[in-house]
Design a protein that fits this description.
The complex is a heterodimer of chains A (466) and B (165).
Chain A (H helix, E strand, L loop, with lengths): L1 H14 L1 H10 L1 E2 L9 H20 L9 H10 L4 H28 L8 H24 L3 H14 L6 H9 L6 H33 L16 H12 L1 E2 H26 L25 H9 L5 H22 L11 H23 L13 H4 L4 H12 L2 H4 L1 E2 L2 E2 L9 H4 L2 H10 L13 H11 L7
Helix pairs in contact in A: 3-5, 3-11, 4-5, 5-6, 5-11, 6-9, 6-13, 7-8, 12-14, 16-20, 19-20
Chain B lengths: L8 H30 L1 H4 L5 E7 L7 E8 L12 E8 L5 E5 L10 E3 L4 E3 L6 E3 L4 E3 L8 E2 L1 E4 L2 E6 L6
Antiparallel strand pairs in B: 1-11, 2-3, 3-4, 4-9, 5-6, 6-7, 7-8, 10-11
The chains are: A mainly alpha (466), B alpha+beta (165).
Chain lengths: 466, 165
């Protein structure tokens, strides 16, 4: 022990570690901050998971468009602990997005972004964007069919940017098509470029948090006044501040380790996302969709009124980003307590509800044709009249069933036709089939008259109580 | 140490400007090749190449089938990603039309339903008629077409960049 102590003293004298780190660890923080302030540090803990599992995965992953998929298959199925590592990296990414979101909501609700911590919020917004970028680029590195098509979808979205859209899309693809250069670029973005920026931003984020101190528990009787706040804060710390280590830090450690344990547990029990089909762009049976944290945005893109897409794809992220950046500059003073800021609480409720509803819709995808729909069974058709049976058969063959459902069978894109005969006359049904309608193709040029008659005969049997 | 070097303010200003200027030169010496390398995709000319996709008689009139061909600008390590698919329609009069499989909404691969004679997109439900015009859903324009020609009994498609709407 004595020897160890001597080595430490020798080392410390030459590095001044305790002089540098000591005050950082012991710096006074406001008292009674409680469990609301653990989400930022937990995000950092999870980021550490991402760094270490990411480095480990990079030792085996081959960032070549032709081989990445096979190397990931090997990591997942054959490599020692590879399945667990990929799972940790995936659930780590999910936890990052979730915790960044919660941390941000907490900061917003407690008004902690107000003077003098405005820049900390701005850097945090950048970190949110970078986290989402990491999630998206990481999903592409899976380089299965979903990865390849997600790249195409991303390039198409970039293509909607006015003037420089096509150039942006080419830069994203790393060329003119999805191919060898595409994956290498995304790999470099995901493991070098974006992490480098994240490191810098985290340093700034933590540096600013240390510079201004963490915000004290909000109180309705003490609105923020930039003229007096800093002096008051210093004074409060002096009077009742507690050392960060261990008075406040223990909660960060407990919650952080709990999060890490949850990530490892989920990785062990559930495992990483399945690799879908190989990245062959000629396999048409593809259904590209983002990982869960972007599913709500996927739902937005599906439900936009026609003609507004370009505006929303380009404009919405710009407006949302701008609002987030400007927020602390506009509202940098006044009340911090949620009880005195009804609009702040209402906007969080509105945002969480909207994203929640969109997310639910994105999981159900009622707008997607259901290509797995099977021909209607006799128990559904409930008729042995030849024309009706033929109509039910055509209902599947002509693709009606991909979008319309009958008695729970079929897609949900179009109206449910289970009781259509109660709503429309045979003439109206015929007109609708031949001419189409809003969001329905016209079949006049592709369907035979006798087939229309059979379809109408079948649909005309669909009454309530049948 | 006793010979303190004192510099005139002008000289200090000059030395500071010199250092900043030289620093900028150094940054440019590193930065220009790096940024140039990264922006290379913008500087390449558009690669287009005729690719044979099958003998004329293998395509049935009135049918639309998927054809596969190699990209015009593939690299050696691209593996299966060097391939592209397209929908080739042989019209009743024997003329050929090739559609990109990418939906013009957000680029997902559209599927062909032969009986209904419709293209349907799995992502957001875009639908196109057999001639590629929009039948329903969010696509802002018809399916993109590749130029097609017949050479020596082979149907050839002009492979080019991934269509960006």
């Amino acid at each position: 022990m004595e020897l160890l102590r001597k080595i430490w003293v020798w080392f410390d004298m030459r590095t001044d570690v305790s002089k540098v780190l000591g005050p950082l660890m012991k710096h006074p923080v406001p008292p009674r901050t409680g469990w609301m302030y653990v989400f930022g540090s937990a995000t950092l803990f999870v980021f550490l998971i991402q760094i270490f599992t990411g480095i480990a995965l990079a030792t085996a992953y081959v960032s070549s468009a032709g081989q990445a998929f096979e190397s990931l298959r090997w990591i997942t199925n054959d490599a020692f602990l590879g399945h667990l590592l990929r799972g940790m990296h995936y659930f780590g990414a999910s936890a990052m997005v979730l915790l960044v979101g919660i941390h941000m909501i907490r900061t917003f609700l407690t008004g902690s972004y107000k003077f003098p911590r405005e820049l900390n919020w701005v850097v945090g917004v950048l970190l949110l964007g970078l986290t989402i970028l990491m999630g998206f680029t990481g999903q592409l590195l899976r380089w299965d069919q979903n990865g390849v098509w997600s790249t195409v979808v991303a390039a198409e979205q970039a293509g909607r940017v006015p003037i420089i859209g096509h150039q942006l899309a080419r830069l994203l693809l790393g060329g003119q098509t999805v191919g060898g250069a595409t994956l290498s670029r995304f790999f470099a973005y995901h493991v070098f470029f974006i992490p480098a920026v994240i490191f810098g931003m985290i340093a700034l984020h933590i540096g600013l948090a240390l510079r201004h101190g963490i915000s004290e528990k909000p109180s309705a009787s003490r609105p923020v006044d930039p003229q007096t706040y800093r002096a008051w804060y210093e004074n409060m710390l002096h009077r009742e501040g507690v050392p960060f280590w261990p008075d406040a830090a223990w909660r960060d450690v407990v919650f952080g380790v709990l999060v890490v344990a949850t990530v490892v547990f989920l990785a062990w029990r559930i495992g990483p996302p399945q690799l879908t089909t190989p990245p062959d762009p000629t396999i048409i049976q593809a259904y590209p969709r983002p990982d869960w944290y972007l599913v709500w945005y996927f739902a937005v893109l599906a439900q936009l009124p026609h003609g507004t897409e370009s505006l929303v794809i380009v404009g919405a992220p710009l407006v949302a980003g701008l609002c987030l950046f400007v927020l602390p500059l506009v509202f940098n003073r006044g009340q911090r307590a949620p009880s005195r800021r009804p609009w702040a609480v209402a906007s969080i409720v509105a945002i969480v509800l909207s994203v929640g509803v969109l997310w639910y819709q994105g999981e159900r995808t009622p707008w997607s044709p259901d290509f797995s729909a099977q021909p209607l069974a006799a128990s559904v058709v409930q008729s042995d009249q030849p024309q009706v049976v033929q109509g039910a058969h055509l209902f599947h063959r002509q693709g009606c069933e991909y979008c319309h459902s009958i008695a729970g069978h079929g897609g949900q894109r179009g109206p449910d036709l289970t009781y259509i005969a109660d709503r429309l006359t045979p003439q109206q049904i015929t007109l609708r089939i031949l001419n189409g309608g809003y969001n329905m193709p016209a079949f006049a040029s592709s369907i035979k008259p006798e087939d229309v008659n059979a379809l109408v005969a079948f649909l005309n049997t669909r009454h309530f109580g049948k | 140490m006793n010979e303190t070097e004192t510099l005139s303010p002008q000289r200090r200003k000059l030395l500071a400007s010199l250092s900043i200027g030289l620093g900028a030169v150094g940054a440019a010496l590193i930065g220009i090749p790096v940024v140039g390398f990264l922006l290379a995709p913008l500087l390449q000319s558009v690669a287009q190449r005729w690719r044979a996709v099958g003998a004329v008689q293998t395509f049935q009139k009135g049918y639309t089938v998927e054809v596969r061909f190699e990209d015009a600008s593939s690299v050696a390590w691209a593996g299966v990603t060097a391939q592209t698919g397209a929908w080739l329609r042989c019209q009743p009069d024997g003329q050929f039309v090739a559609f990109a499989i990418n939906c013009t909404h957000l680029g997902c691969p559209v599927r062909w339903l032969q009986d209904a004679e419709l293209f349907m997109c799995p992502c957001h439900g875009g639908v196109y008629y057999k001639d590629g015009t929009v039948a329903a859903g969010p696509p802002p324009r018809p399916l993109i077409q590749y130029p097609v020609r017949v050479r020596d009994g082979q149907v050839e498609v002009l492979a080019g960049p991934t269509p960006i709407t």
